[in-house]
Amino acid sequence: MKTPRLFKTCLLALTLLGGAAQASDPLSVEVGYLSYRPPTPPALSNILPEARDTGLRGAELGIADSNTTGRFLNQRYQLQNLRGEDPEALVQQAEALKRSGVRLFVADLPAPQLRALSQRLGPDTLIFNAGSADDALRREQCLANVLHTLPSRAMLSDALAQWLAARQWRDWLLIVGDQPEDRAFADALHRSAGRFGGRIVDEKAWSFDTDLRRTAQKEMPLFTQGSDYDVVLVADERGDFGEYVLYNSWFPRPVAGTQGLTPVAWHRVVEQWGAAQLQSRFETLAGRWMDSRDYAAWAAVRSIAEAVTQLGSADPEPVRDFLLSDRFQLAAFKGRKLSYRPWSGQLRQPIPLVHPRALVSQSPQEGILHPNTDLDSLGFDAPESQCAPLYAKGEER
Amino acid sequence: MKTLSRKAVLGLACVLMLAPAVQAEVAYVSNEKDDTLSVIDLNSLEVIETVDVGQRPRGITLSKDGKKLFICASDSDTVQVMDLASHRIIANLPSGEDPEQFALHPNNKLLYIANEDDALVTVVDVDNHEVLAQIDVGVEPEGMAVSPDGKWVVNTSETTSMLHWIDTATNELVDNTLVDQRPRHVEFSRDASTLWASAEIGGSVAVVDVATRKIVKKLTFEIRGVHPDKIQPVGVKLTSDGRYAFIALGPANHVAVVDAKTFEVLDYLLVGRRVWHLEFNSDESRLLTTNGVSGDVSVIDVADLKVIKSIKVGRYPWGLAVKS
């Protein structure tokens, strides 16, 4: 019976062919995304609330971008979104995700929760910090399994200070809010003043509890009276009173810092260097403007995908070593390639200085010199950070 | 010899009559932030006309017979067709959304358009204005080229960092070549054996063997006093004798001159600010550059390798096309 045999042979051949197709299963990369925001005290200036899905939508766009690329490379990226009101429950969910095989995480968490997550997930994971600008995480309280895509406060304040130096606005009046984050940003400004030749002529603590929406015109001029200054700098991260300093200072001076002219990782007004395309992809996805935390989460996912493309593997250790090496480069719509600082795991990046409707400048400023790259004039350079040993390559640790 | 012969007079009259009718060679420049084209007379090197077009004009290319100009009007989501005799827009092609760059097949019939926002390449029949195919490519498709033999269409996708090879016979994507970050532009050699691809953020130009679709050489650049991060290659043009490659280096404000055989960088020519795209005049004696930030066009003398003039055009000049 010749025919059945031929039939069987064909079947076998088909089975083998099918097997070969299965052998090239796509490389599947799952990324866990965690976000938690502690409740903030109510702010006076509560007119424009922040989007509730900030960060998450950036990560989603990063996944979508990476999947379009992954289609040609047989890679598939997926996001597991964990979100919670209770930080402990969130960490437990992350641990469960790790037990199911997820090793790469993007976290939009305050510093204490990020530290807890880093410790609980352990060294065989890689976490991208897209939520905390805390300077200590880049300087002395480093976490070996964490890379930072959000700029630190020191990077933001340095970016602003460089621009103030370029404008020769040297005398600063500093107004500081009563939250610990405000103090942290004010400290960063003090450090930047020392580095780039600013003089803080006076520092005032904002502790008034009047409703400035009604009385800013009366309170603020008196509050900002004193010796003359070139610029008022505001440290008010949650936006309690800072918006009311503009146009109400005793001397007719510009306002910068957390309000007025602000240093950011990202803003809608950034449109050069192909950024218009990223902005429009994001707006199509999220129906709103892309902000700094969206950008940090996007850059984290894109970093992962770039490493996976180059390495053909999504294991956290080689991914981390590759990202910290000089082989990694990320095109991220800021006019030059981005890379990670091998001593602190911080993503080097230019910092746009914006007001709500326009890009004013971008630091590092022209003329700032650095032996390695002028991007390292923003934030903590190698000698200022104690973290280098933690970030040494796997085999050197 | 006291009077000119009748024939000579007639001949002279004819020359006098015809001379003004001989069209000088002109260059069209798209001004991205002015929604206009500047028309430059290539004899006088002056702007002789400014023409209104659709919103955010970027890539422009001539029809093979030189009668029409195709214009990517990115924010109008169309490719406009301009009749060059009248400078009137005579058609809008269904281009897909946000067309940025395109390439015309040697058959003068098929236009391959990169749709930057949609990760697509759209194939349009320019005669009957029909969309023949849409091909999925990587994120932010930009650079486009058709091989001189008409077999290949190559598209670059900026965020995917790939060259996508499309077979023009089937309109199918058949291969991908991974290059450095943010590939912007591709250019085939005249014999269709090699393809040059610039990577803006990678700072390199890859020379790819068309037969194997593998990179055979990667060029990098170094200019004294310019930070390496600012060397961002975009436009590439090859002389048809195979001697030179010219590469626009973006915010480095220079055009690199490369020996196209040995791949040695011979010189860097200082042009205007943020130089992106390049085009030869018809005898390749001159090379024009669009300088976005300074809003001008630099003219390079190809024999001397010297910049001889800069011509003020509109805001953010982007694309170039030369009509002889």
Q: How many domains in all of chain A?
A: 2
Find the biggest chain interface. A-B, 21 and 30 residues
User: Strand percentage of chain B, roughly?
Assistant: over 45%
Uncertain stretches of chain A: 1-23
How would you describe the overall organization of this protein?
The complex is a heterodimer of chains A (397) and B (324). Chain A is α/β, with parallel strands linked by helices and 397 residues long. Chain A has 2 domains: 242 residues, Response regulator (Rossmann fold, 3-Layer(aba) Sandwich); 109 residues, Response regulator (Rossmann fold). Chain A contains 11 helices and 14 strands. In chain A, a hairpin with a 2-residue loop joins β13 and β14. In chain A, α3 runs parallel beside α4. The longest helix of chain A is centred in the N-terminal third of the chain and has 22 residues. Chain A starts with a helix and ends in a 34-residue tail after the last strand. Chain B is mainly beta and 324 residues long. About 2% of the residues of chain B have low confidence. The chains are: A alpha/beta (397), B mainly beta (324). At the A-B interface, α2, α9 and β11 of A face β15 of B.
Please write out the topology.
The complex is a heterodimer of chains A (397) and B (324).
Chain A: H1 2-23, E1 27-35, H2 56-73, E2 75-83, H3 87-99, E3 104-108, H4 111-121, E4 126-129, H5 136-139, E5 146-148, H6 153-167, E6 171-176, H7 180-196, E7 199-205, H8 212-223, E8 231-235, E9 255-257, E10 262-263, H9 275-286, H10 292-311, H11 316-324, E11 330-331, E12 337-338, E13 351-355, E14 358-363
Helix pairs in contact in A: 2-10, 3-4, 6-7, 10-11
Chain B: H1 6-18, E1 26-31, E2 36-41, E3 46-52, E4 57-62, E5 68-73, E6 78-83, E7 88-93, E8 99-104, E9 110-115, E10 120-125, E11 130-136, E12 141-146, E13 152-157, E14 162-167, E15 172-178, E16 183-188, E17 194-199, E18 204-209, E19 214-220, E20 236-238, E21 244-248, E22 254-259, E23 265-270, E24 275-280, E25 286-291, E26 296-301, E27 306-312, E28 317-323
Antiparallel strand pairs in B: 1-2, 1-28, 2-3, 4-5, 5-6, 6-7, 8-9, 9-10, 10-11, 12-13, 13-14, 14-15, 16-17, 17-18, 18-19, 20-21, 21-22, 22-23, 24-25, 25-26, 26-27
